[in-house]
Write a structure and sequence with these properties.
Layout (H helix, E strand, L loop, with lengths): L1 H13 L12 H4 L15 H14 L3 H10 L8 E3 L2 E3 L3 H17 L8
Helix pairs in contact: 3-5
Length: 116
């Protein structure tokens, strides 16, 4: 219990206060894959994560501060879900897939590499 409590307080006290963030109050889009209720279909978070990435990259006035914060954390301490326009995951395979999704989102919105 102590280790869990210490991890939680470390995470909470390190979170920057960014009330103008575009994600404020929109946790449903940015959360990681949700737990499935018995009898419910398996959720594919791809569409809502693509929307969350787009919100971060194109509508958030504090995305740079958010990115600085998440980049300052050890990978194992980063919150899962969409943070600063990136999908944060816990496995190397998931991280590669998330990076590819972010590149596709930027390309789709007209801001990716190779686009005018």
């Amino acid at each position: 219990m102590t280790a869990t409590w210490e991890s939680l307080t470390d995470a909470l006290f390190g979170i920057p206060d960014l009330p103008s963030a575009a994600c404020w109050g929109r946790w449903d889009l940015f959360d990681p894959e949700r737990e499935r209720e018995p009898g419910q279909p398996v959720e594919d978070p791809h569409d809502r994560h693509q929307l969350a990435i787009s919100i971060c990259l194109h509508a958030c006035p504090v995305v740079d501060e958010c990115r600085e914060w998440v980049d300052s954390l050890k990978p194992s301490k980063r919150p899962p879900g969409v943070v600063a326009g990136r999908v944060v995951t816990n496995t190397a395979r998931q991280q590669r897939e998330a990076s590819l999704s972010a590149v596709q989102a930027r390309s789709h919105c007209g801001t990716g590499p190779g686009l005018p």
